[in-house]
Specification:
Blueprint (H helix, E strand, L loop, with lengths): L11 H10 L3 H14 L8 H9 L7 H13 L26 H16 L16 H9 L40 H21 L5 H16 L5 H24 L3 H17 L3 H17 L3 H15 L5 H18 L2 H16 L16 H14 L3 H14 L5 H17 L3 H16 L4 H14 L6 H13 L1
Amino acid sequence: MTERPAQRTPNRQLAALIAEAGFSNAGLARRVDQLGLEHGLDLRYDKTSVTRWLRGQQPRGTTPALIAEVFTRRLGRRLTAQDLGLDACAPVYAGLEFAAGPEEAVDIVSGLWRKDSGSHAELRKIAFTPAGLVVPSRDWLIGRADEKVARGEAPARVPAQGRPVVPQQRGRAERGPGHRVTSGDIAALRSVAELFRTLDNAYGGGHARQALVRYLEHELEPMLRGTYGEQTGRRLFAAAADLTRLAGWTSYDIAAHGLAQRYFVQALRLSQAAADRAYGAYVLVTMSRQAVYLSHGREAVQLARVAQQGMGSSAPPVVQALLHAAEARGHGVLGEVRACTASLVRAERALEAARPGDDVPYWARFFDEAQLADEFGHCHRDLQQFRAAAQHAERSLQLRPHGLARSRLFCRVVLATARLGLGELDQACQLAAEAAGQAAEMRSVRAVEYVKDFERRLEPYKDAAPARTYRDKVAALS
């Protein structure tokens, strides 16, 4: 990496933080290089590089942000490049910060929306960072709801005759700074979320993701920067958390994994502003599912356990089932049979304890017998227990509504994989061909990857007649 010409003033801020962190120059350089690798950067710094920084040279590109992140992780508090006496730049970890307060949270998440709604293709290429899960999940677990989220509230002006004068609202088409957020605004946000959720379930995250992000930028951000009291503000932040998680979910579905991770972290922070502990746990489960998909089983288990710890025993049975199932999936990826089985049993017992009159959050209502059977099927597939995987996948397909097309596709591939593992080649290829046809109708990278995973498993049978027929059917789709 090329460096800027040396400054004459030694960097005492950096020297003080190196001493506080207990780093050697070589140790700091090594950590910066390792963090760079997490982001796909090949940096090759050494102790001489650090010596130059201490003498006042400014590292170029994303390096100042990486150095700041190294110190943030070591010292347990958020540090910026400026705190280290370094020039700021666009940090590669932008969006992974867990904001100190509601205003900062709005600044961070709205910055993500603006960049994502434009032509910033590089944002969708950012790598997923397992280490970036640690600080946000910890801060959520030990944190409390923000004391105050109300914004711009001013008392009514009282003229001499004693009758209050309520400030006039702007026209609905003139939403901007100072716009007073109403219950109707929040109801609209909820309706929009349901619309995009339905589109995502049926057609994949790629169909309407950009429209969702533009909506967040142009409609939700002005609301968050508007005027509202405490109660309305909590509801507004709750809706913002839900929509931001959904933006992350659709990003995850198109394999923009680093971007999705950042959306999830910000949804977690917004849920804290909303004082909605349960929804924060759901966001952590979402993050756990992404970690499972990317084969980071240990991180998936940890996220699920943080969610469980954060909720305690107060969660409704359906939510408890969801949390235990998420942990089971992580154990399944790791091949931990006993731990996976124990978590599945806890999920099953929790769901059995659910009653029709229970107060179940709207976001957990999808977790029913069909979903639990799907979780069992995935776990048994990962543990190579193919007969059990087939039984549970078949049950899930029998129970699952057809509107949840992508979930049914995933389950069909799990069933095809189980049939393949049992040596039932004809059935396996027939099921997989159906799934491939469905994937071709969606804009979902995950759907395509499920099919490709089956095809990799099919490779040892490539010369068999059913495999050849399968390849012909798939070729005809394109």
